């Protein structure tokens, strides 16, 4: 808890601290400006030189070095950038800070983009971070920004810098200044201990939010990233709960006669949509967080669950076995106009609408194999991104470009559960390293 | 000679029982009838050993097989005998499904068991239900043998 609170104070520090933009994009040159075309499937990662942000000595030097490493790791993990080895750099960070890059030195080592910056401790104890980005081939300055914040939020500023570089070079919003909430697992499969846990998207700043006394499942972030809705078996009464990250306070949501589960926030954060199972029937309900009013949206005798709103809040995708097997359906936010979305072979589950609105991710179960895929909201363009013995529960990075999910692998007498991310085109699958086994990831929005 | 034939007969019966009903295979239930003396009547152990505390379901199914109904008939009789006992029926699913769907499926299974017991005269207020989905397998392992044991409804004395 302490770590979380400290982080949140850091976040507040950054929020009020974006001081000024030092430079804006230069007018378009005659040649096409440096940009990664990520509309195509597989791209050659862009070679980028990221120089050290290290200041003079002591803490400044350490923070600066660490920041460069975080920026470099973020960009590399995206699969769209190839950070070059700093040992080959011909111009020093100090030379870059005082003047223009010697472009030919950077071209000589194959760099197409160059990042330089500095981390300086100010007299008031705050940390000032400047960074600049250049297009090496065109010999042009592309972007520059300056931030001040508390020194212990250096890691967050590094992610913000990486997001700025990503956005300038891809034209799409970044996703590095985000967190992932998930379920940390330990113990034997028949008495699994499950705890809510939270970390930065790169696995750092890890902390546990619950102690494991109660079975907890399927956490999801609110649009402000300040709250989490999840399911807990407190007092053997499985219900949907709300967890406030700042205060640590937990409360049951609504007063339902049956088990509630599969919660998600509405995009405006005013409602939580969920399923309730009662007398062998599962339907979808919303709970208005201000008025506490409960509204029933589906009324089929089947299992209607895993609801997820479109980003504009006008539609809901969910899974139902009303047609005989688990398939995806879309309906209006008031429950009207239900339309079946999937007709493929196998069972379709855990739909989740992309923050961009253009795709719906899902879990598909076919024969002995599980897969994570995407489909357009009109039911066309179904694509499978990854298959395994068991993959489940995709969640979107806020830019709609990367997904996370969990993968279970049978081991001798048990199984391992791990988190992975993958590009929406189905390439660049990466493990997100967690201290212990992990499942049910949920990606936060960009931290406000 | 006669003894031999009898024991062969018994062995055949045991084998066929194993094939059709996983609840009589080498699990903790069903086959421990020898030392019933130390078991407290009306307890969970009594239910598990002398009656059968669980029923099994087909893949993605929640209807009760003839074997399951047999077990539940005995559970209903037992519950008539121990009228102070209240129970919770736990519904479980195997791991070959998604988490949220399996929670709903477990609830359906628990509800099937409850409905059957109530239809056999057990007061509805004596039977609660809870679903654990795929979260609490009885048997650890990946394969149909384990999964068949995990798709279950377990009657637990409160």
UniProtKB/TrEMBL annotation, chain A:
HAMAP family assigned: TolB
Keywords: Cell cycle, Cell division, Periplasm, Signal
The name this protein goes by in its record: Tol-Pal system protein TolB
Role: Part of the Tol-Pal system, which plays a role in outer membrane invagination during cell division and is important for maintaining outer membrane integrity.
Entries under SUPFAM superfamilies matching the protein: TolB, N-terminal domain (SSF52964), Tricorn protease N-terminal domain (SSF69304)
The keyword Oxidoreductase is assigned to this record: no
Pfam families, per the entry: PD40, TolB_N
Residue span, TolB N-terminal domain: 34-141
Oligomeric form and interacting partners: The Tol-Pal system is composed of five core proteins: the inner membrane proteins TolA, TolQ and TolR, the periplasmic protein TolB and the outer membrane protein Pal. They form a network linking the inner and outer membranes and the peptidoglycan layer.
Family the UniProt entry places it in: Belongs to the TolB family.
Subcellular locations according to the entry: Periplasm
Domain of life: Bacteria
Automatic annotation (TrEMBL), chain B:
Signal peptide (UniProt feature, chain positions): 1-21
Bias type Polar residues, positions: 23-41
Top-level taxon in the UniProt lineage: Bacteria
Region (Disordered): 23-44
The entry's keywords: Cell cycle, Cell division, Cell outer membrane, Lipoprotein, Membrane, Palmitate, Signal
Tagged with keyword Plastid: no
InterPro entries for the chain: Bact_OuterMem_StrucFunc (IPR050330), OMP_bac (IPR006664), OmpA-like (IPR006665), OMPA-like_CS (IPR006690), OmpA-like_sf (IPR036737), Pal (IPR039001), Pal_lipo_C (IPR014169)
Coiled coil (UniProt feature): none
Pfam families linked to this entry: OmpA
Compartments it resides in: Cell outer membrane
Ribosomal protein recorded as keyword: no
Bilayer topology: Lipid-anchor
Sequence ranges assigned to domain OmpA-like in this UniProt record: 44-158
Job of this protein: Part of the Tol-Pal system, which plays a role in outer membrane invagination during cell division and is important for maintaining outer membrane integrity.
Subunit: The Tol-Pal system is composed of five core proteins: the inner membrane proteins TolA, TolQ and TolR, the periplasmic protein TolB and the outer membrane protein Pal. They form a network linking the inner and outer membranes and the peptidoglycan layer.
Family in the record: Belongs to the Pal lipoprotein family.
Protein name (database record): Peptidoglycan-associated lipoprotein
UniProt organism field: Azospirillum oleiclasticum
């Amino acid at each position: 808890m302490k770590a979380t609170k400290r982080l949140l104070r850091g976040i507040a520090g950054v929020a009020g601290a974006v001081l000024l933009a030092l430079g804006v994009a230069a007018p378009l040159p005659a040649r096409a400006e440096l940009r990664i075309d990520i509309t195509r499937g597989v791209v050659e990662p862009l070679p980028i030189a990221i120089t050290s942000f290290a200041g003079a000595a002591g803490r400044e030097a350490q923070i600066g070095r660490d920041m460069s490493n975080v920026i470099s790791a973020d960009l590399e993990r995206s699969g769209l950038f190839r950070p070059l080895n700093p040992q080959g750099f011909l111009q020093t960070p100090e030379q870059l800070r005082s003047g223009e890059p010697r472009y030919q030195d950077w071209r000589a080592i194959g760099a197409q983009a160059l990042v330089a910056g500095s981390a300086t401790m100010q007299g008031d104890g705050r940390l000032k971070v400047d960074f600049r980005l250049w297009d090496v081939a065109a010999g042009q300055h592309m972007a520059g920004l300056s931030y001040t914040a508390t020194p212990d939020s250096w890691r967050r500023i590094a992610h913000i810098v990486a997001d700025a570089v990503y956005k300038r070079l891809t034209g799409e919003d970044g996703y590095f200044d985000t967190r992932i909430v998930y379920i940390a697992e330990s113990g034997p499969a028949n008495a699994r201990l499950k705890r809510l846990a939270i970390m930065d998207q790169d696995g750092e700043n890890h902390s546990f939010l619950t102690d494991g006394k109660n079975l907890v499942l399927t956490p999801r972030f609110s649009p402000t990233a300040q709250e989490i809705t999840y399911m807990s078996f407190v007092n053997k009464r499985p219900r949907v709960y709300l967890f406030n990250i700042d205060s640590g306070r937990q409360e049951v949501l609504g007063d339902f006669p049956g088990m509630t589960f599969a919660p998600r926030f509405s995009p405006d954060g005013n409602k939580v949509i969920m399923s309730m199972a009662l007398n062998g029937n599962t339907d979808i309900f919303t709970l208005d967080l201000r008025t506490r009013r409960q509204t029933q949206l589906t009324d089929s005798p089947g299992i209607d669950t895993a609801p997820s709103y479109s980003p504009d809040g006008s539609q809901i995708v969910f899974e139902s076995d009303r047609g005989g097997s688990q398939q995806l359906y879309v309906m209006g936010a008031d429950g009207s106009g239900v339309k079946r979305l999937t007709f493929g072979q196998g069972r379709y589950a855990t739909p989740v609408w992309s923050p961009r609105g253009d795709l719906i991710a899902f879990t598909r179960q076919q024969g002995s194999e599980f897969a994570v895929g995407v489909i357009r909201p009109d039911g066309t363009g179904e694509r499978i991104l990854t298959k395994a013995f068991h993959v489940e529960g995709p969640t979107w990075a806020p830019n709609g470009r990367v997904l996370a999910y969990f993968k279970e692998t049978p081991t001798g007498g048990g199984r391992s559960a791990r988190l992975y991310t993958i590009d929406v085109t189905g390439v660049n699958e990466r493990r997100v390293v967690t201290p212990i086994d992990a499942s049910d990831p949920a990606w936060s929005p960009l931290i406000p | 000679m006669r003894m031999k034939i009898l024991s062969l007969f018994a062995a055949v019966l045991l084998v066929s029982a194993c094939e059709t009903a996983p609840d009589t295979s080498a699990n903790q239930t069903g086959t421990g009838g020898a030392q019933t003396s130390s078991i407290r009547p009306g307890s969970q152990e009594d239910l598990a050993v002398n009656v059968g505390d669980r029923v099994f379901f087909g893949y993605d199914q929640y209807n009760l097989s003839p074997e399951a109904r047999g077990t539940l008939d005995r559970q209903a009789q037992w519950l008539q005998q121990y009228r102070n006992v209240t129970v919770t029926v736990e519904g479980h699913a195997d791991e070959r499904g998604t988490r949220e769907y399996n929670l709903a499926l477990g609830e359906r299974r628990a509800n099937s068991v409850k409905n059957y017991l109530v239809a056999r005269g057990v007061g509805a207020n004596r039977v609660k239900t809870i679903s654990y989905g795929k979260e609490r397998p009885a048997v650890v392992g990946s394969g149909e043998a384990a999964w068949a044991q995990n798709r279950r409804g377990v009657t637990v004395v409160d």
